[in-house]
Amino acid sequence: MTLTPEQHAEIEEQRSLSQPTRRAVSPGMEERLYTAHPVLDHGLVRVIDYMGDDSAITQAARVSYGRGTKKVSDDRGLIRYLMRHWHSTPFEMCEVKFHVKLPVFVARQWIRHRTANVNEYSARYSILDREFYIPEPDKLAAQSTVNHQGRGAVLQGEEAARVLDILREDAMRSYDHYEDMLTPDAEAGKQGLARELARMNLPMNTYTQWYWKVDLHNLFHFLRLRADAHAQYEIRAYADTMCEIVKDWVPAAYEAFEDYRLGGVNLSGRAVEVLKRRLAGETVTAETSGMSKGEWREFEAVWG
C-alpha cells in the first residue's frame, strides 16, 4: 500500500482529534477510525465515519415490534433472533462510510451492489497515479474447467513469469502514453488531450478510490457474497478486511452474521425433503432426489 506524506499527515491529524459527544459510540470502531488497512499491493480500506452500535439495532427493533420483544432476555439474543429470521430494518439503523482504494476491475464488480452511496475519484478533473494491481505469483491461475467465472490451477514457472511481465509492461506503457497525451508541448505543436479522454487508454488494473457509505444490513449482504470462498480473490481480500472492522464495530451483530450467514446454509424445499428421507433411513440418490445435477452436486458438497 502506498500513501503519500500528505495522506499520512491527514490520517495522523484526524486520529489525534477528539470531540465530546452524546451519541452512541463503539469503542472497537473508535480504534479503527481513519486507520488505513492495506489490501492487495497498493489498495486500502479505512473508516471515515460511522453511526450506531449493537444497541442501536435492538433499540430500533423494540420500537418496531413493541412489547413482544421484552421477552427476549438480552440484546445478544434479540440480535440473533433478528438475524435468524431475516429481519432487515433494525440493522439499517447502523451506517458506515469507508474510504477504499481499489483496482478499476474490482470497482466494477463492487458497484453492482447498488444499495450504497458512492463518490469516486474523478479522472475528468484529476490525473490518476501510476499505480497498478499486479497479482502475486500464487494468485495467477488458469481458467477453471468446471466454473465459467472462476480460477483453476495456479500457473507455474515460465508461463507465470511471462504473464507477470506482460501485465507490468502493458500497464507501464499505457501510463506512459496517458502522460504523453495529457502533456501540452507548444514547441512540438501539442495541445494535450483532455483528461476525460486520455483516461480511456488506462488498463483495468489501474487503481481508483472512492467513498462508500452503506447501512449495516446491506453491508452484511455485500460481505455474505464477497467474503465467500467462491468470490474472486481480489474483491474477497477487501471483504475480509471489512469483516474484521465490522467485528470490532458491532460484535454481537457480527457474531450472528457469521453464524447464520457466513457459516449457515440455505436449503430448498427439495433439499429439506431429501434430508428428512435420509433421516428416516431411506437411501436417496441424485436420480430419486428430484434435484438437478447442479443442485445435487451442491447439496452433496455440504451434506455428503
Automatic annotation (TrEMBL):
Keywords: FAD, Flavoprotein, Methyltransferase, NADP, Nucleotide biosynthesis, Transferase
Binding positions for FAD per the UniProt entry: T89, R112, H113, R114, E120, D215, L216, H217, H221
Entry binding sites for dUMP: Q109, W110, I111, R112, E120, Y121, S122, A123, R124, R199, R226
Cofactor note: Binds 4 FAD per tetramer. Each FAD binding site is formed by three monomers.
Biological process per Gene Ontology, one example term: methylation
InterPro entries the record matches: Thymidylate_synthase_ThyX, Thymidylate_synthase_ThyX_sf
GO molecular function: thymidylate synthase (FAD) activity
E.C. no: 2.1.1.148
Region (Disordered) residue spans: 1-27
A family per Pfam: Thy1
Active site residues of this protein: R226
UniProt xrefs under CDD domains: ThyX
Enzyme class: transferase
Catalysed conversion reaction: dUMP + (6R)-5,10-methylene-5,6,7,8-tetrahydrofolate + NADPH + H(+) = dTMP + (6S)-5,6,7,8-tetrahydrofolate + NADP(+)
Subunit-level organization: Homotetramer.
HAMAP family registered for this protein in UniProt: ThyX
Function: Catalyzes the reductive methylation of 2'-deoxyuridine-5'-monophosphate (dUMP) to 2'-deoxythymidine-5'-monophosphate (dTMP) while utilizing 5,10-methylenetetrahydrofolate (mTHF) as the methyl donor, and NADPH and FADH(2) as the reductant.
NCBIfam families listed in its UniProt record: thyX
Protein name from the UniProt record: Flavin-dependent thymidylate synthase
